[in-house]
Design brief:
This protein starts with a helix and ends with a helix. The chain has helices at about 5-25, 35-40, 45-50, 55-80, 85-100, 105-110, 120-140, 150-165, 175-190. It is mostly helical.
Length: about 190
């Protein structure tokens, strides 16, 4: 396989994932057909099937890509920080950037995760737990006196708070949004 073909294939795959997220967020999983996705991505049905077996596989790939990106970002934040408090701040910043850039995907996940086939849903949930556990380990180091339940509740509360950007129309400057989200999320860990 030559590099040009690989790059084109990656671009097509990315276009398909983006189109899936946008259409499913707007219409719902069952109201979107594979032809709709192909048309929105600017590819033919045959091109879709070179990348994905069916519409469910597209949805799975959207979720796996997102959770994979979150894991990569969290690991990088952890590697670049020197104290638990600084690491929590870095994790929060990384998640805020993700949430602001992927509002549509967060909305799709909230609405459509139940449409994943059971085995794929379990695999995505395992990835999500791995992500949450990275945060929990850092929060435990920052707050060794907190109970496991308090730490888990705070971590998942921070996720919900940050991910809530998918539920409303953002107004104001992006820097202000980031600063407000960071301030509120950091307060959860005080």
């Amino acid at each position: 396989m030559n590099t040009a073909r690989t790059a084109r294939g990656q671009r097509t795959r990315s276009l398909l994932l983006d189109a899936t997220a946008e259409l499913v967020a707007a219409r719902g999983f069952h109201a979107v057909g594979i032809a709709d996705i192909g048309a929105a991505a600017g590819v033919t049905g045959a091109a879709i099937y070179r990348h994905f077996e069916n519409k469910e596989a597209l949805l799975v790939a959207v979720f796996e890509s997102v959770v994979g990106d979150l894991l990569v970002g969290a690991r990088a934040a952890i590697a670049c920080s020197d104290t638990p408090s600084a690491t929590l701040g870095a994790l929060i910043n990384t998640h805020i950037e993700f949430a602001l850039a992927n509002r549509t995907v967060i909305k799709v996940y909230d609405q459509e995760a139940h449409n994943l086939p059971p085995a794929e849903r379990a695999r995505v949930r395992r990835q999500q737990r791995a992500y949450a556990n990275l945060w929990i380990d850092v929060a435990r180091a920052a707050h060794p006196d907190w109970s496991t339940s308090d730490i888990a509740t705070t971590v998942h509360g921070a996720f919900g708070l940050i991910n809530s950007v998918a539920d409303y129309r953002l107004t104001g400057a992006a820097t202000d949004q980031r600063a407000r989200l960071r301030a509120v999320a950091m307060r959860a860990f005080d």
